[in-house]
Design goal:
It is elongated, with a radius of gyration of 22 Å. The strands form 2 sheets. The protein has an 8-stranded mixed sheet with strand order 3-2-1-4-5-6-7-8, with helices on both faces. Strands 9-13-12-10-11 form a 5-stranded parallel sheet. It has 2 domains: 4-270, 3-Layer(aba) Sandwich (Rossmann fold), CATH 3.40.50; 282-375, 3-Layer(aba) Sandwich (Oxidized Rhodanese, domain 1). With 383 residues, it is of the alpha/beta class. The longest helix has 20 residues, at 200-219. The protein has helices at 8-11, 17-26, 36-48, 89-100, 115-124, 137-150, 177-180, 193-196, 200-219, 257-260, 288-293, 306-311, 325-328, 346-357, 368-375, and strands at residues 28-32, 60-64, 106-109, 129-132, 154-160, 163-169, 228-233, 238-243, 285-286, 299-302, 318-319, 338-341, 362-365. Strand 4 (129-132), helix 6 (137-150) and strand 5 (154-160) form a beta-alpha-beta unit.
Length: 383
């Protein structure tokens, strides 16, 4: 570990000290993605002393990315600069980290992860912690499955437009990512940064939460956010927390076979394998077209945030944001069927589980209000 003068301000923290600093120095961390979230996490961990070992090559930050820097990246991927355009992201990100902390050990892996690659990295580099800042669901589920098999904690984050979320997956000690989102969303149901845009400061907030979580797990300082997801809404500036547990109904033997047998370029959501990607509540979904054609009496339950409902909502729906749903759900008549919806169908699936647990007859709208706008009523604004 280099001079303690570099880390004096964090060494002074209550409960931190030299022991925690040495754990950071000796840690072996794998960061997947050197894009927006990686741009916040990589310099933060290098500055904090992760991989600042004693020269034995043990502690290190391992970076994985197969992409090159483009001009459109720079508004949010601040680890790169204009002069880096066309360079491999792992190189420009590593150079930036080393400029911050010359004593850090940065290992560059310019590759696209597959099952063999990630399992090899986890084993060969003896990784202590994985941080997933990837921008696609295929990689996100692959990394979560691999971390579960290797029994390595995984800090994950995601951003979209004005919001984002971050959490910790650690199967041997609590819930994992698949307990929260058991299967990938349908193809095209979640807008990419290219299609939907992203507020750069939102990336900064979520990336900072991820870096903080990694430091807590590596040092043992504080309480890890296992079983809790932190959500940030950039438009309101508000945070909320979603708690979740292991899902016994979704438990299965973890295997990378589904990833191995996916054809190149096939999205994780469109795989034809049966059980692993079947929705947790098979038969509990309704499509936008089916809802439009239905004459059944049902409560339309909107679990989005109030600012979203101001942009667009289904006529006659009742607004109960997901974060407050456990406390407000009692106001609904349990004898009346419920159709629950959100923006893209992710939050509504979490709400569906709660509704079913409370004895309601419920389904959720596949693809959310966005699918309604695309497939039924184009006058409903998309956002």
């Amino acid at each position: 570990m280099s001079s303690t003068a570099r880390y004096a301000r964090q060494l002074a923290l209550p409960g931190f000290g030299l022991a925690a600093q040495r754990r950071l120095a000796d840690a072996r961390v794998l960061i997947v993605g050197a894009g927006g979230l990686g741009s916040i996490v990589i310099p933060a961990l290098a500055a904090a002393g992760v991989g600042d070992g004693d020269g034995d090559g043990d502690g290190a930050i391992h970076l994985v990315d197969d992409d090159e820097v483009e001009l459109s990246n720079l508004h949010r991927q601040t680890v790169h600069s204009t002069t880096d355009i066309g360079r491999p992201k792992v190189d420009s990100a590593a150079d930036r980290a080393l400029a911050i902390n010359t004593d850090a050990t940065i290992v560059r892996h310019r590759l696209r992860l597959g099952p063999g690659e990630i399992m090899g990295l986890l084993a060969d580099a003896r990784i202590d912690l994985v941080i997933d800042g990837s921008d696609n669901f295929e990689t996100r589920y692959l990394v979560d499955d691999a971390a579960t098999l290797a029994d390595v904690p995984l800090v994950w984050g995601a951003v979209s437009q004005y919001g984002g979320q971050a959490g910790l997956s650690w199967a041997s000690r609590g819930p994992r990512y698949r307990d929260l989102f058991p299967h990938p969303p349908t193809d095209g149901s979640i807008l990419s940064c290219e299609a939907g845009g992203v507020l750069p400061t939102t990336v900064g907030v979520i990336g900072s939460i991820m870096a903080t979580e990694a430091i807590k797990v590596l040092t043992g300082v504080g309480t890890p956010s296992l079983g809790r997801v932190t959500m940030f809404d950039g438009l309101s500036g508000g945070f909320r927390e979603l708690r979740y547990e292991r899902d016994p109904a979704g438990a299965r033997q973890v295997s990378l076979d589904e990833h191995l047998h996916r054809t190149p370029g096939e999205d994780a959501a469109s795989t034809t394998s049966a059980a692993p990607h079947a929705p947790r509540h098979a038969g509990r979904t309704i499509t936008a077209e089916q809802l439009a054609a239905s004459d059944d009496e049902a409560v339309l339950l909107d679990v989005r945030e109030p600012w979203e409902a101001e942009i667009a909502r289904l006529p006659g729906s009742t607004l109960m944001p997901l974060g407050s749903l456990p406390e407000t759900l009692h106001s609904l008549d349990p004898q009346t069927p419920v159709v629950v919806y959100c923006h893209h169908g992710i939050r509504s699936e979490s709400a569906l589980r709660l509704l079913l647990e409370r004895g309601y007859a419920a389904v959720h709208l596949e693809g959310g209000i966005d699918a309604w706008s695309r497939l039924v009523d184009p006058t409903v604004p998309r956002y």
